[in-house]
Amino acid sequence: MINFQLNNSPVQVDIDPDTPLLWVVRDHFKLKGSKFGCGMGLCGACTMHLNGEAVRTCTLPVSAVQGAVITSIEGLGTPDNLHPLQEAWVEHSVPQCGYCQSGQLMSASALLAKNPNPSDDDIETAMNGNICRCGTYSKIKSAIKSVIKPDAEAMRTQVSMVGTFDPTDGNAISTEANS
Ligand code: FES
Ligand code: FES
């Protein structure tokens, strides 16, 4: 018997321990938001959170989640209480066919949970393994950037603009942006 938390509820399944978590969630628990794309950990369509980390569930045996906390797209938000990223996805009209989007949202939400003020590079690194055949990448990036805390964003810009201080007259003699 495998026991774990799924979207904040304790669950248990009596199943072949080699069964990929994706199929346990989709077929056993009937939560169909996470998609099967490549089945080889290459496209990100099946991404869920394992103890807060974005993981590919098409290659993750359910035995590996014994005692773990799993969140699928169904646990990210609800229609009445969307996750801020889901609101941003709607505002930016991100999805086209939509097939990749639950995986995209799970990767983006794992990033922001750890780093609420990611740089462009941080976003690109975190989202790198999530493939979108429809090419929604620029809208995904815009949506993620729209939920970055404005104060934190301003502070990072300010830090990157720190000038060189001239001690002879007390004036800043140059400024340079790093990003
Ligand atoms: S279906 Fe899991 S990474 Fe493609
Ligand atoms: S929206 Fe179609 S694959 Fe990403």
TrEMBL record:
Residues 1-76 form the 2Fe-2S ferredoxin-type domain. Pfam families: Fer2, Fer2_2. InterPro entries: 2Fe-2S-bd, 2Fe-2S-bd_dom_sf, 2Fe-2S_ferredoxin-like_sf, 2Fe-2S_ferredoxin-type, 2Fe2S_fd_BS, Beta-grasp_dom_sf, Diverse_Oxidoreductases. It comes from the Bacteria. Gene3D superfamilies: 3.10.20.30, [2Fe-2S]-binding domain. Keywords: 2Fe-2S, Iron, Iron-sulfur, Metal-binding, Oxidoreductase. The keyword Iron applies. This is (2Fe-2S)-binding protein.
